[in-house]
Hints:
This protein has a single domain, classed as Rossmann fold (3-Layer(aba) Sandwich). Helix 6 links the parallel strand 6 and strand 7. It is built from ten helices and eight strands. The chain has helices at residues 15-28, 89-101, 105-109, 111-114, 131-136, 151-161, 188-201, 213-220, 225-228, 233-249; strands spanning 3-7, 32-37, 73-74, 79-82, 119-124, 142-148, 176-183, 205-210. Helix 1 crosses helix 10 (233-249). The protein is globular. The chain has 267 residues and is an alpha/beta fold. Strands 3-4-2-5-1-6-7-8 form an eight-stranded mixed β-sheet, sandwiched between helices. This is Cellulose synthase operon protein YhjQ. InterPro entries: Cellulose_synthase_operon_BcsQ, DNA_Partitioning_ATPase, P-loop_NTPase.
Amino acid sequence: MPLVCVCSPKGGVGKTTLAANLAWSLARAGSKVLAIDFDVQNALRLHFGVPLNDGRGFVARSEEQADWSQSILTTGGNIFVLPYGEVSEPQRERFEENLAKDPHFLRRGLDTVLNYPGLVIVADFPPGPGPALKAMSALAEMHLVVMLADTASVSLLPQIENNRMIGQPLNHQLGHYFVLNQSDNRRNISRDVTAFMQQRLGDSLLGVVHRDESVAEANASQQSVYDFSPASAAAFDIELIAKRVANILNISVGNGEVQAPIRSGHY
C-alpha cells in the first residue's frame, strides 16, 4: 500500500491541484488510487467532480466511526476520494486533538485502506505544520513538498532541510522530495529560482511544473488537466513526476480492476 503525502510550508502554491493531478496520473497508468483530504478547506474533492454542496467527509464522525473508509466516495474510473467534509469548529478541534494525543488514532481510522491490496494513497495536507502531517510521518512511504518558483519558497527551504517543519524528519521511510510548481521562463525571478532549486536540491527535486493556464481552467471545470488539455506543458510535467513517484515506490501497475470490495458512498 504505497502512501504519498503532499505538503508545503506555505499556502498558495498549488499543492491541492498537484495532489489531485498526481492521483489522476497514477490512476491513468492503471493503479487504483485513493485521494485523502486532511485540509479543512475540503477542496480536494472538487478536483474529482464532487458537487460543491456535498458536505460528506470523514472528520466530523472520526471519533464515532472507527473505520473511515465508510466515508469514501467513488468518482468513476480508478479513483476514490475520502473528503475532509464540512465540520464545525469543535469537531475540527477534537479531530486535531485526537491526532496529536493518540498515536494510534490515524492508523485505526485508515486501517482498512492501509491494508487494501494494490491501492495507492495520495494524501493532501493543509499548508505548514499540523497534527495530521506529523501523525502521518510514521505511516507514509514518501512526502512530496510543493514549492513555488519564487523567493519566498527559497527562504523556506531551510525549514524543510533542517527538519523544522514538524520538529522531526517529514518521512521515516523513503524520505521527502520536492516539486517546483508554476515555473515561468518568461520571468527572470522565476527562471533564476528554478535554476537555483535544481542545483541546490539535485535528485531530491522530482520535477518542475511549468506555469500553464490550462491547469486553472481544468480546476474550474472540475477536470484533470489530462482530460482538459492532454497536450499541455503541465500535463507532461506532472505525468513525468508521477512516473518518478511510481519508480521510487516500486508501484506495480495492474489493470485497474478492484481486487476486493471497498466501502464507498455514491453521489
